[in-house]
Automatic annotation (TrEMBL):
Superkingdom of source: Bacteria
GO cellular component, one term: cytoplasm
Protein name stated in the entry: Ornithine cyclodeaminase
Coiled coil: none
Signal sequence annotation: none
Biological source species: Anaeromicrobium sediminis
One Pfam family this sequence matches: OCD_Mu_crystall
Amino acid sequence: MKDVIDDLEKVFILHNKKDYVLPYKVSLRWGDKHTEETRGRINAMPGYVGGDTNIAGIKWIGSGPQNPMKYDLPRASALIILNDAEKMLPLAIMDGTIISAMRTGGVTGTATKYLARPDSKIAGIIGAGTQNRTQIMAIKTVMPKLSKVKVYDLYLERSKRFAVEVSEELGIEVVPVLSAEEAIRDTDIIVTATTAKEPIVKAEWIGEGCFYSHVGGHEAEFDVISKANKIVVDDWEQIKHRGTQTLAIMHEKNEMKDENIYAEIGDIITQKKKGRENETEFIYFNGVGMALEDIIVANRIYSKALENGVGTVLELWDKPIWI
Ligand SMILES: NC(=O)c1ccc[n+]([C@@H]2O[C@H](COP(=O)([O-])OP(=O)(O)OC[C@H]3O[C@@H](n4cnc5c(N)ncnc54)[C@H](O)[C@@H]3O)[C@@H](O)[C@H]2O)c1
């Protein structure tokens, strides 16, 4: 996770310098955007990362929200293809499921480092799925004093299993709680990563000095965001285009203006804007997720695989024809 967070800081700096190419995500779905949380969808996420990374690629990621309960399979499953940015030829085809979950955690880890109180000890999370596992892993990486996590899920069995596995893995206390309110009240850091169809988080549950990383779709009431002293995002244009998260819905309803966004995370890492300035401000962060994040992590793993002779060499052609 430490390596992932280092990759992400680097990619947010490149993003800030505009040394990237990032077309909007294409969503293959079987109805309007609300069907994503019921029927599912597959997203195509291409991108090019500049700097000394200089690599292009695409993540093709399916989401079947019914998978964990109905089939005992993960909600998200992804493949990543990396391409040489000079010849444009494919370099590698790899699993993207774990990379995607790790980078989503890493994005919150990076934001937490700059936006949460450095003495944060208690996290409250909603959703006992894949994403929140890597969210906690990342928060623990940047906030070594983190000692307790409260987790709420619609299904108590899932939060109980999550608590046992994550506390064992990270050596911190993880407690399943019986309501979203109990998870959120009296915490330093909040994360929501659910497949909820309606907002869950209420403004009155959030205390002074809190940091909230919003990972899922429409999980917070509008008042939560209006209460924030600072609203920070990964990429505002991408959030608006994707249209599924609370900030984008507020914008669509004319309740969020471009000027209400305080900064993109790259502005804070590059010190163009200040991160946390005092102990009391409530900072809200929303990452929509960018292909650049997947590509930079995938590229590091690809390089390691080459170094270690790991992987299977595919022969697409014996020799090229019809040149
Ligand atoms: N922003 C990003 O970059 C990014 C990246 C990956 C995933 N996501 C989003 O994160 C969310 C979670 O993904 P995941 O892979 O962990 O899914 P998952 O299916 O593994 O876990 C989701 C959990 O949410 C719980 N849940 C659903 N509705 C709830 C509610 N109302 N209250 C409490 N719990 C509820 C489910 O029971 C389940 O345990 C998805 O919406 C996904 O699209 C965002």
